[in-house]
Design goal:
single chain; about 110 residues; alpha/beta; 3 helices; globular
Length: about 110
């Protein structure tokens, strides 16, 4: 269920410009989203898990923010995903799009 919702949500964002804004990451740091942000939308499903190996190989560019957003996952699921997949959190900051305990599963800056 979460995988389908994350995929459907990601598809609505293709070609859209995200306004410059600052959001909190999973570890309470701030990251600025702007035209120099590489944004990857994942869920905690098997296809996303298999994609992490390729993400970890990405060569980073100075001055570019690399951010992974989980739009429909809980903190516990995200933490387990990062631990299991060994997502390089020095390279990719991790955030979720909103408080998934609320009534809106897709809130925040990515609407």
């Amino acid at each position: 269920e979460g995988a389908d919702k994350s995929r459907d949500y990601a598809l609505t964002l293709i070609g859209k410009v995200i306004p410059t804004t600052t959001i909190k990451t999973f570890d309470e740091q701030s990251v600025t989203l702007n035209r120099k942000t590489i944004l990857v939308i994942l869920n905690t499903g098997d296809k996303s898990k298999s994609f992490v190996e390729q993400l970890n190989k990405v060569e980073t560019l100075e001055g570019v923010n690399y951010l992974v957003i989980f739009p429909s996952e809980t903190n516990d699921k995200i933490a387990k995903f990062v631990e299991e997949t060994k997502l390089n959190t020095d390279k990719f900051k991790v955030a979720k799009n909103c408080d998934t305990t609320g009534s809106s599963r897709y809130c925040g800056i990515l609407l």
